[in-house]
Amino acid sequence: MTKRIFSGMQPTNQLQLGNYLGALKNWVSLQNEGDNECIFCVVDLHAITKTYDKEGLTQATREVAAAYIAAGIDTDKSTLFAQSSVPGHSQLMWLLATMAQMGKLSRMTQFKDKAGKNTEKAGLGLYSYPVLMAADILLYNATHVPVGEDQKQHLELARDLAATFNTRYDIEHFIQPEPYIMGAGTRVMSLRDGTQKMSKSAESDMTRINLTDDADTIAKKIKKAKTDAEPVPSSEGDFENRPEAKNLMTIYSALSGEDMNALFSQFGGKTFGEFKPALADVAVSHLEPITTRMNQLMEDPQEIDKILIKGGEKCNATRTTILTKKQWILWVFGKGKTC
Ligand code: TYM
Known about the structure:
With 339 residues, the protein is mostly helical. The protein contains 16 helices and five strands.
């Protein structure tokens, strides 16, 4: 069976290493494997759940698209587009919103993190963010969704909504999408606190490696990354209560493709002063070509716009969704069950 892969990233700030290792790197492997049909989206509607400036958002949308291409997304093989260019996402979201329970949405950890203590002031957009994400996926009847670990709960909701929809409208329309949480870097942590996720929205730039960072900046951030006074771990047991050590070794493993046991033999017992330059070398040799290509692509923003527009047109034209297949209003009133 052909797998239909769908995933996306928000154009908020620069993409960081966690986005790359937890998602983008895996998208490229999935694109190049078998006859997978891949659709990758820049989720600009999700990015406006917080205040934004219009030009900044346009620029960030292009930068994310450039990062996808620079990392290896081939626009002849995969569809690349911006979420806001396909109205079906927000239309389907409304139908799903009528089935999404407030209780479930209130338990979403990402909402709790982002809304902070003052949930009264949080916007409906932030609250319903996972419903729009479910719509993104279900609109294409994606079978697999490659994401980092932090998106697992949102994927569960998408699966629930698919099942609820099918029951409510008495139709086997939506497939239950499977999360694809792959590889060593499913949860990359902050360089300054191994208990916090690396994030593009964290205040300090020193907590993350951005895909736009040059070689010197990467080396500096790794050199200053928090560690402890113990030597580099030699076994899994040595990771106990040492989240920063575990994180740096995980990043090494995810970038180099070497498994952790190989790293224990190579670096175990050495100092972090010896390990960190080796990690910086691996990071630079892996990321530098991507950054260079991204910068080249960003020199021609119109070309990126053309790619995004073409992708959006393809999605609008070829994705016959339940919204376009049925004469929706008549169909709902004729067939929908009362809840
Ligand atoms: P975003 O932009 O916050 O994250 C994009 C992807 O990067 C992964 N990620 C990480 N993986 C490992 N370690 C980290 N520190 C790290 N930080 C981020 C995320 O898991 C994600 O895969 N809600 C989505 C965007 C979205 C989406 C969708 C994804 C909207 N609609 C439909 C898939 C399908 C998000 O987290 O974006």
